[in-house]
Amino acid sequence: MKLSDFDFDLPDRLIATRPAVPRTSARLLVADGPVLYDKRVSDLPDWLRAGDRLVLNDTRVIPARLNGQRHRDSAQGPVQARIEVTLLEPRADGTWAALIKPLKKLKIGEGVVFSDDLRATLEAVEDGQGHLRFNCAGDDFDRALNAAGAMPLPPYIAAKRPADAQDMTDYQTVFARNKGAVAAPTASLHFDEALLAQLAQIGVAFTHVTLHVGAGTFLPVKVDDISEHKMHSEWGQVSAQAASEIAATKAAGGRIIPVGTTALRLIETAGRSGAIQPWEGDTDIFITPGFEFNVADALMTNFHLPKSTLMMLVAALMGQDAIKTLYTHAIESNYRFFSYGDASLLLPKAQKTA
Questions:
Q1: Residue 298 to residues 145, 333, 348, 352: CA-CA distances in angstroms?
Q2: How far is CA 308 from the centre of its chain?
Q3: Three-state secondary-structure class, residue 133
Q4: 298-334 tens-digit pLDDT
Q5: 342, exposed or middle or buried, with CB in 10 Å at 0-12, 13-18, 19+?
Q6: Which pLDDT tens digit goes with each residue over 44-81?
Q7: Helical segments of 123-180, H only
Q8: What whole-number distance in Å separates Cα of residue 251 and Cα of residue 333?
């Protein structure tokens, strides 16, 4: 398959820069087999049933975007440079891998001041990333980062506006608890406590898994033959309890419905043997048409970027023709796209006849 098979023209006006308020008022395009229905996220109880299990990614986004100042003495006197940092992940040696702009203006051993409580020193550069050691750790680091950092909005939103205080709430799921992501599992942003309670009341069950979404989720595919693409890796965990819950639901004939591509990729990683198993590690699973799904029966997800690995994933689940039809309908119907946009519920096997 070629990269062009997953391309489409998206009007810029359909890229959402703020989420729907309230969260559950976002539109929901239901693909019930080949039939499309225009609904709202608040209509989910009409499409889910007792015995279904939603798989939720409980990763917590950290305020990974930092602005600081580098100070240096020169022959002309003290000079400063503005340094932008996006934290990527903690490393085993206690440093943080980070994207630094402009990296060339920071030398090994130099420091950057982000606030009175948060400073870092550049210890190494590898593969275009800097390794930063901060002046504090643990709870002290979390407090300082929360005070100085901003939410790492995706590039297509950050290009339109800077992150602000509202994003600290908007770009976090209501069930986020395990910190470590630098991008949100965005389909999950549509849920609030009231909707979760309503779903539980009709007999829908929930399983929490963790996949720390990395900045690599936004990396473009640069090869025309998609089989040559090297997928980025992200750390995830499916606990023994989570695996047991999912296995029991499948054994009872219930549907496993991950909320978001991150949850789907993780449970399919844990199910490569043919059945779900407890799993922990870095996954670089690349799901393209022809993939055999062992765990997921359906998917709730937002609308994705053209020529992205996520377009390939939804095409693998629904079929390329079905996804082309769905995206054409979404664009013609003015659905809002990407992280803060509307959602789709993809049911490969039709559930309703009308």
A1: 37, 23, 6, 14
A2: 13
A3: strand
A4: 999 999 999 999 999 999 999 999 999 999 999 999 9
A5: buried
A6: 999 999 999 999 999 999 999 999 999 887 777 788 89
A7: 138-148, 155-158, 167-170
A8: 39
